[in-house]
């Protein structure tokens, strides 16, 4: 069966623009801040609204309250489907309807919970993250209308910004509602508003608590200092031993690779420095592409350190100290394996033979797209058509914990990570916004992709 084609889809999406913007404005006004309580009425209202919007585009959406792992009531989730042909592929569309809090509205130039259009962007909390994801799915289904030729399932989550606590029990309880050939997660973003991207990898993470002990009890630093190093200094030596002289992690057994799907364009050093607010004299650590250093190679950070505060300190040698390492792991390495490699290294490199003990903490698996799968080619082609330029794929240095979980629970399904954000979106920050032209092109992309997946069947 012939595909609808770019021009038909573009016309339909452009004709639908005001409905899509209204959807986003309504969504912003619902102020669905999950941090104020995922079981609150405001979250129920948000879920009901989203379900209503999905019903308007032919999905039999309903709101279901999830249960937490401990059995208590959890988030209001929106699920539903639109079945067109038992022989056609099934696509699961994911987004989330909860939003980040607004700790200080005075940092915003507009009211955070009123959608305000300005210079081609719509401002408001959740306009991009992830109201934009809901708008992409709604717009794509509207554009295809009765020409939809794939089966669609929808999951709009209610607690993504709170770490998706009830996600796994909910998925397990509703397995059939999620079983699909392709999962489109519209919760990331593009290289820029006019350059599309697939997000091809996420790093995993592992926390390790490390205790360094040198003495049975603290002793006077004048009397014993010299032959005996204090535990803080020994801990600093231990931490430094993880790095080579370029500042790169040099721990055997920690995997790290090149960007998944190849590197089309590297990140800009000056931009990275400006975004992070690095002091002028600082030299960036490592030598490879910035993309690989940020997305596909491991990184370690000391995120906690038990030492005596400077104020009120006195002349003693610390007997022991403890610090926590947050290790970001390569997308494809098991975090348990990476944590073990690091623990072995730290114990083997105990400075001066101090006692080093390592206790593993939270772990999360990373994720890497299957860059060779045909659906990736189809998605890239849809992006090329919709945006009129080649996609520039990217990774995420952080994690989106439910994506590896989806992959674990549905190993047969391909996962594509797309989304409405661009570098100006300020998701999680003041003045969040979405590019409306970018949104239109994202909708066209998703509609084209669903259309081509359906056409392939007939
Ligand atoms: Zn999000």
Topology:
Layout: H1 6-15, H2 17-29, H3 41-56, E1 62-67, E2 73-82, E3 90-96, E4 116-118, E5 121-123, H4 131-144, E6 151-157, H5 167-173, H6 175-178, E7 182-186, E8 199-202, E9 204-213, E10 219-220, H7 221-224, H8 231-240, H9 269-276, H10 290-296, E11 299-306, E12 316-317, E13 320-329, H11 335-348, E14 355-364, E15 367-368, H12 374-387, E16 394-396, H13 402-409, E17 414-418, E18 433-435, H14 436-455
Parallel strand pairs: 3-6, 3-7, 7-17, 8-16
Antiparallel strand pairs: 1-2, 2-6, 4-5, 5-18, 8-15, 9-13, 9-14, 10-12, 11-13
Helix pairs in contact: 1-4, 1-14, 2-4, 4-14, 12-14
- Beta-strand residue percentage: 15-25%
Oligomeric state of this protein: single chain
Classify the helix fraction into a percent range: 25-40%
CATH superfamily of the largest domain: Zn peptidases
Ligand kinds: zinc ion
The first-to-last residue Cα distance is 5 Å
Q: Gyration radius, to the nearest Å?
A: 25 Å
Helix-and-strand structural type: alpha+beta
| Continuous helix count | 14
Number of domain units: 2
GO molecular function: metal ion binding; peptidase activity
Protein name: Peptidase M20
InterPro entries: Cyt/Met_Dipeptidase, Peptidase_M20, Peptidase_M20_dimer
Keywords: Hydrolase, Metal-binding, Protease
């Amino acid at each position: 069966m012939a595909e609808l084609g770019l021009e038909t889809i573009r016309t339909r999406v452009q004709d639908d623009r005001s409905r899509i913007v209204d959807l986003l404005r309504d969504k912003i006004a619902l102020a669905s801040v999950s941090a104020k309580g995922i079981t609150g009425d405001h979250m129920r209202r948000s879920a009901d609204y989203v379900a209503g919007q999905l019903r308007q585009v032919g999905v039999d959406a309903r709101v279901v309250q999830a249960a937490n792992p401990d059995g208590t009531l959890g988030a209001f989730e929106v699920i539903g489907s639109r079945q067109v042909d038992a022989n056609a592929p099934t696509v699961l569309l994911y987004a989330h309807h909860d939003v980040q809090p607004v700790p200080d509205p005075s940092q915003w130039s507009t009211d955070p919970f009123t959608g305000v259009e300005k210079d081609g962007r719509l401002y408001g909390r959740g306009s991009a993250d992830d109201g934009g994801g809901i708008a992409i799915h709604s717009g794509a289904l509207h554009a295809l209308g009765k020409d939809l030729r794939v089966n669609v399932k929808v999951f709009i989550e209610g607690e993504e910004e709170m770490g998706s606590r009830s996600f796994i029990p909910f998925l397990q309880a509703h397995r059939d509602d999620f079983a699909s050939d392709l999962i489109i997660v519209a919760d990331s973003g593009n290289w820029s508003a006019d350059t599309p991207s697939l997000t091809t990898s996420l790093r995993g993470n592992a926390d390790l608590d490390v205790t360094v002990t040198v003495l049975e009890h603290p002793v006077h630093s004048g009397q014993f200092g010299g032959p005996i190093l204090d535990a803080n200094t020994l801990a600093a030596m231990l931490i430094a031993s993880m790095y080579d002289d370029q500042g790169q992690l040099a721990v055997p057994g920690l995997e790290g690779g090149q960007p998944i799907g190849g590197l089309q364009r590297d990140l800009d050093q000056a931009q990275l420095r400006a975004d992070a607010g690095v002091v002028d004299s600082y030299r960036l650590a490592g030598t490879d592409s910035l993309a690989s250093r940020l997305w596909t190679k491991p990184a370690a950070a000391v995120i906690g350190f038990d030492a005596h505060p400077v104020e009120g300190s006195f002349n003693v040698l610390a007997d022991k100290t403890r610090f926590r390492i947050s290790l970001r792991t390569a997308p494809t390495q098991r975090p348990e394996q990476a944590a073990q490699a690091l623990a072995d290294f730290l114990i083997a490199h105990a400075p001066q033979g101090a006692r080093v003990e390592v206790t593993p903490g939270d772990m999360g698996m990373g994720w890497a797209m299957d860059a060779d799968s045909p659906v990736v080619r189809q998605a890239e082609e849809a992006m090329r058509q919709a945006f009129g330029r080649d996609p520039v794929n990217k990774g995420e240095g952080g994690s989106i914990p439910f994506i590896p979980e989806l992959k674990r629970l549905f190993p047969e399904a391909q996962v594509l990570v797309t989304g409405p954000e661009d570098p100006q979106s300020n998701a999680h920050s003041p003045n969040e916004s979405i590019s409306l032209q970018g949104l239109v092109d994202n909708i066209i992309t998703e509609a084209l992709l669903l259309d081509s997946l359906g056409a392939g069947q007939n």
